User: What shape does this take?
Amino acid sequence: MGQSKSYGFIRFGDVESQNKALSEKHRIDGRWCEVRIPLSKDSQYPIGMRKIFVGRLTEEITEEDLRNYFGNYDEITDVFVPKPFRSRRSERKQRRSLPLAAGGSTIEEVGTKVTREMEWRGAVIKAWAVTQ
Assistant: This one.
């Protein structure tokens, strides 16, 4: 299984700094990163945008890490690193581990459908079980 990847965007104070960053290879947190002009929906790149895409980052990377790394080129006006996505596999694993009763209590009814409503990680969860 491959390593998880994250990405971010950097906006420089001027185009010259952007071009310098694009012309060099970058190794951040021990990983060679992809640095390029971000793809746009209409395939046109506005002149003077000053923004770059940084890919193949580790999931632990922070906006501050990128600001410190690329700050050597010039003033950074904006940094964006999206929160890590959760894979469907990890979501399924979390669903299987949901508690059936709040507060660690057990279901005592036998042979009935028991429905519980609880709050878990900020969401209201409705769980049910058929006991025997």
The first strand starts at residue 6 and ends at 12. Confidence is low (pLDDT under 50) at residues 90-102, 105-110. The helical segments are 15-22, 63-70, 88-96.
